[in-house]
Amino acid sequence: MLTKLSESATIQLPKHIISLFSLSAGDELLCDTDGTAIRIIPKELNPKLRIDCFGQLTFGYAGKYLYASNKKACELLALLLMERGKPIRKQRLAETLWQDAEPENALDSIYKAVRCLQALGKREGFIMPVRADSGFMWLDMERVESDVIEFERLYASGRFADYEAAVELYRAPFLSKEFYEWLEQWQAFYDIRYMNMINALIESYRESNPNMARYYQSIQYKV
Fold first, then answer.
1. Residue 71: which of 91, 85, 82, 57 has the closest Cα?
2. Within a 10 A sphere around the Cβ of 215, how many other Cβ atoms?
3. Terminus-to-terminus CA distance in the chain, angstroms?
4. Whether 9 and 30 share a structural domain
């Protein structure tokens, strides 16, 4: 489908496309571009980029593991994830990731890392949710899911059933297989929450279910 766009363009979808996706008035569509083509996809049919951070940093899309050859590109994605969609100055990101490089070289390296991520997304048929504008960069959190985001949601609920689920998510300390300079404060952040939930579960089960209490005691020092 070819469409000529103006500043206030309206895109009409062919009837067979509307029928194919069972679209109706009011449905939301995702419109994105990789710089060469515009893709329009019903939001519910567009999987999210999966970023898992407990233990080793891993990425996935539509159930498939993704591999990026540029290690700094992977680190950039993890760093942006921890900012939860907040726009961060590119210069600050560059200085964090390439601390020993000259500022201009560090900034050039961050552009190379982004191009690597964009190329990875293009190969796999999706738009990498890294956004940039006016010297800032951020992650489009509507198109991202992560074990750390789920962990924080479960922790915030205050319910013991959610604590149990969060403890199971915590397979290993935050990015424990990586060696990034900025990790220490985030590792402490998640370690403390893990221990808080473990201690709460031990106390909850101490009288009612001693076996469960002993189980949580046995994994108490996984951190």
1. 57
2. 14
3. 53
4. yes
Supply the pTM of this predicted model: 0.78
- Clarify whether residues 114 and 195 are in a common domain: no
- Domain of 100, in residue numbers: 49-144
Structure token digits, residue 217? 């005691």
Does residue 137 sit in the same domain as residue 64? yes
Identify whether residues 57 and 130 lie together within a single domain: yes
Q: What are the tens digits of pLDDT across the range 38-95?
A: 555 554 455 899 999 999 999 999 989 999 889 999 999 999 999 999 999 999 999 9
Using alpha carbons, list the distances in angstroms from residue 51 to 15, 77, 154. 36, 8, 17
pLDDT digits (tens, 9 = 90+) for 104-113: 999 999 999 9
Distance CA 30, CA 162 (A): 32
Shared domain for 129 and 53, answered yes or no, is yes
